[in-house]
Amino acid sequence: KNMKITNLQVFHVKPRWSFLKISTDEGITGWGEPMVEGRARTVETAIAEQASFLIGKDPLRIEYLWQSMYRNTFYRGGIILTSAISGIEQALWDIKGKYYNMPIYEMLGGKYREKVRMYGHCWGATTEKIINRALERKKNGFTAFKVLLEPYTANRSVKTYIESQKYRFAEIRQAVGDEIDIAIDFHGRVNPDVAIQIIREIEQYYPLFVEEPCLPENTDELTRITHSVTVPIAAGERLVTRYGFRPLLEAGAVSVLQPDLCHAGGILEVKKIAAMAETYYCKVAPHN
């Protein structure tokens, strides 16, 4: 007889994480991470709404369960529903791996590489703190790291703000040297025109990429930014499913896609997104 799902249980961990445990009648359990920052209880409700469909089903039929959860509703997609599905899908892969005693990557085609380059975050209230953290990351073996764009405040002129970001990035580059790659996350904090001006000012320091130079809702504006600068543009942490990423690829809006496995639809959905990106010669740097 087929294995059956018997229970779904969500655990919340401070300050903002959620984990899902799926149990089966064969004693195999799987864990996933269904989360939206600041919406943990909302995602938990979305999971509970899927429970009546999932309980009693075979957890090994991952594609069937994913398609049913996503398509068997009038209102599809959205960050809440897709994050819930992502965590469920991760837990189902965990169960399947344990059932067959096999790593997930083996079930998805086998291992491709032995290691993956990682970058470290270098947040800090001051440029000095960012540089100190960057040098610490460098000492620990990181060859790339990411910094945040300072938020724009209305008490200074646009010219002053743009120049301050240029000098800040230049100072960081000088401190860490040319052998280190530096990405910068704009977090959609400025409008597209200001984003273009800032990126043009820092192009000479060769950023690894600029992430979310504007909010992701407007693909046309993101494309305009990309076509106005030479620095690679990255986006995707707030987008979900291959349907959400398709417009960016078709418009040539980004050089780096950043799907989040906890939001975009789960492990297999992100692999599908990566396959789409490959046909456009677009890099993939999974978020989270």
Brief summary of the model shown:
With 288 residues, this protein is an alpha/beta fold.
Total number of beta strands: 10
CATH homologous group name of the largest domain:
Enolase-like C-terminal domain
CATH topology of the largest domain: TIM Barrel
The largest pleated sheet is described as: 7 strands, parallel
Contiguous runs where pLDDT drops below 50 for at least 5 residues: none
Q: Quaternary arrangement of the chains shown?
A: single chain
Helix content: 40-55%
Query: Ends: how far apart?
Result: 37 Å
Number of structurally distinct domains: 2
Helix and strand sequence: EEEHHHHEHEHEHEHEHEHE
CATH class of the largest domain: Alpha Beta
Anisotropy-based shape = elongated
CA-atom Rg in angstroms = 21 Å
CATH architecture of the largest domain: Alpha-Beta Barrel
Mean of residue pLDDT values: 96
**Which structural class do you get from the secondary structure elements?**
alpha/beta
- Separate helix tally: 10
Molecular structure report:
The chain has ten helices and ten strands. The model has no long low-confidence stretch (mean pLDDT 96). A seven-stranded parallel beta sheet has the order 4-5-6-7-8-9-10, with helices on one face. It has a three-stranded antiparallel beta sheet with strand order 1-2-3. The protein folds into two domains: 103 residues, Enolase-like, N-terminal domain (Enolase-like, domain 1), CATH 3.30.390; 165 residues, Enolase-like C-terminal domain (TIM Barrel). The radius of gyration is 21 Å and the shape is elongated. α1 packs across α3. By secondary structure, the chain is an alpha/beta fold. This is Mandelate racemase/muconate lactonizing enzyme C-terminal domain-containing protein. Pfam families: MR_MLE_C (PF13378), MR_MLE_N (PF02746). One of its GO terms (molecular function) is lyase activity. InterPro entries: DgoD-like, Enolase-like_C_sf, Enolase-like_N, Enolase_C-like, Mandel_Rmase/mucon_lact_enz_CS, Mandelate_racemase_C, Mandelate_racemase_N_dom.
